[in-house]
Amino acid sequence: MTIEVSRAGVDDVDLVVGIEREAFSDPWSENAFHAALAHPAVFFGCARDGDGEVAGYVVAWFAADEGEIANLAVAPAMWGKGVGRRLLEAALEAASARDVVSVYLEVRDSNERARRLYGAFGFEEIGRRRRYYRRPVEDAIVLRRTLSQDV
For residue 98, what is the domain's CATH number? Predict the structure, then answer.
């Protein structure tokens, strides 16, 4: 299956919000996604399947030489088809293009699927935020990847 990632547009927000609500118990608001679209320091990409349907999305922001993957989700029907991998690649490519040195993210302690993906991309645990998530209350694992110029 071919997965293409392109910049999100206003017309994608409703679909992204739907995936967000399926994926997370404490979802971002529609307004948060609209704000991401408008911000120049944000990479907001949508993964599309061969039919052009939105299969997932990633939101990453950058400041100076650091970046953060703030949100990444895949529609449950597309799990295991390489969508998350392609979204992560696109975010890291965007970071590299902006000369980012380190990329950070938080992930639920219990989210083994995501933790395996991030580990496969060289993210390493650097900390823990106790009781970071609210619904349900759970620790966040803080991960970091140092980029080389070959991303």
Answer: 3.40.630.30
